[in-house]
Specification:
Glutamyl-tRNA Synthetase, domain 2; 12 strands; Glutamate--tRNA ligase; Glu-tRNA-ligase_bac/mito
């Protein structure tokens, strides 16, 4: 089977880590199966959709390493939806309803009070042409519902009608259409809800697999029925668990701290974000994966847990650090330059294991170039002054530190922390940092001598 997947965000805000999960799942599935990835903007909400959000989505996906094979905007495909809607109207498969939201809510409350499920009673189907004309003369405009195929002859006598699918994440699934209300496909203002354009686009774009969050499971039975009403074979579905905060709360576009651009601005690597977003809530160990191709190999939709996946941003830092520690100078050279450092391969080799993010290199570059603030305790002043007198001549190598400290040990009897720590604090102003064997040659003799004086 030729694989085509899609990611269909609404351009009504910035992507957050919860959006990244389905985007990545789809991209990795396509990558693993040699398939295509369609980015399809669900921008039929005219009031809330913004071009700047669509641009931001494309930018965030590119940062993650997702490069769509095709980009579509539903707002540019309205004529296709209109034509399909007219065909369904002509076949009696969608019908007009005139209830207001308040009226519908009152009916639902009444049904619950009577112990009945709050399923729409298909009152719109009973309206005569004259009754419809009267309602429209009052200024009411109809919304349009799809008539679910959950009856034999009489739509007012529903019967159990099961829809089955084998979910790639959750296994065999069943939905009884008789337990559901006929879904609204077209709003009273003539705009389309997500369901109808999505199905038409999936058909038109040859989408073979729909990989999305488990919050869509209840909709899937209805959507399969609409696919079949349109004469199309439904795609294969996979409903993965949703990411929540560490406290178990759902993520939303209001979760600014977990927006992709906020994570990027924090200097986090896209593959650290991708690794945690994909592997959280699966049976796979959470570890930093260096490339999308490697992450695609690990993707197993059947390994996704049925429980919510708790995303803890604190887990990103250690994952990110492991990726940074493994980066070669060639991988970061341009980024080091953009940070304003002149660090070479020796500099990066000395400091990378002390960086959680590549941008941390700037702090270490300032330690190299100064101005430094040496820290010398009173009891160490004579020792530090002697160290300056004994400082080896250049050229320096990774052997210089051990040769120098060996000489100082012989002259003073100091050893261990009492020998090394005063030197580190005097040279770097810090009591921690890179291995001085590699860092000292980067700092250089002149800077070192200045700080020991």
């Amino acid at each position: 089977m030729s694989v085509t997947v899609r990611f269909a965000p609404s351009p009504t805000g910035y992507l957050h880590i919860g959006n990244a999960r389905p985007a990545l799942m789809n991209w990795l599935f396509a990558l693993k199966n040699g398939g295509k990835f369609v980015l399809r903007y669900d921008d039929t909400d005219r009031e809330r959709s913004r071009a700047e959000y669509a641009d931001a989505i494309a930018e965030d996906l590119a940062w993650l390493g997702i490069h769509p094979h095709r980009v579509e905007r539903q707002s540019q495909r309205i004529a296709i939806y209109d034509a399909a809607a007219e065909k369904l109207k002509a076949r009696g498969l969608i019908y007009p309803c005139y209830e207001t939201p308040d009226e519908l809510e009152r009916r639902r409350r009444r049904a619950r009070a009577l112990g009945r499920p709050p399923v729409y009673d298909r009152a719109g189907l009973k309206l005569t042409d004259e009754q419809q004309a009267t309602l429209e003369a009052e200024g009411r405009k109809p919304h349009w519902r799809f008539l679910l195929p959950n009856f034999t002859d009489d739509p007012f006598r529903t019967e159990r009608t099961e829809v089955h699918w084998d979910d790639l994440c959750r296994g065999p699934q069943t939905v009884d259409l008789a337990s559901l209300s006929d879904p609204v496909l077209i709003r009273a203002d003539g705009s389309y809800l997500y369901t109808f354009p999505s199905i038409l686009d999936d058909i038109d774009m040859g989408v073979s697999h729909v990989i999305r969050g488990e919050d869509h499971i209840a909709n899937t039975g209805v959507q399969i029925a609409i696919f079949r009403a349109l004469g199309a074979e439904p795609p294969i579905f996979a409903h993965h668990n949703l990411l929540t905060t560490a406290d178990g709360e759902g993520l939303s576009k209001r979760s600014g701290a977990l927006s992709l651009r906020a994570l990027r601005d924090d200097g986090l690597e896209p593959m650290a974000v991708a690794s945690l977003a994909v592997l959280t809530g699966t049976s796979h160990a959470i570890e930093p994966i260096a490339t999308m191709e490697e992450l695609a190999v690990t993707l197993d939709l059947a390994s996704v847990s049925k429980s919510a996946a708790k995303f803890d941003p604190a887990d990103l830092r250690p994952l990110n650090a492991k990726l940074v520690h493994a980066m070669s100078y060639e991988e970061v050279a341009e980024r080091l330059k953009e940070l304003g450092t002149e660090g070479n391969a020796a500099f990066w080799g000395a400091i990378r294991e002390n960086c959680e993010t590549v941008s941390d290199a700037l702090g270490w570059w300032k330690v190299v170039t100064g101005p430094a603030k040496p820290k010398v305790d009173d009891e160490d002043r004579e020792f530090v002054a002697l160290a300056g007198d004994c400082l080896p001549d250049e050229p320096w190598s990774e052997e210089t530190w051990s040769e120098w400290t060996k000489l100082l040990k012989e002259k003073t009897g100091r050893k261990g922390r009492g020998l090394f720590m005063p030197l580190r604090k005097a040279i770097t102003g810090l009591d921690h940092g890179p291995d001085m064997k590699r860092f000292l040659p980067v700092i250089g003799r002149r800077n070192t001598l200045d700080r020991l004086s």
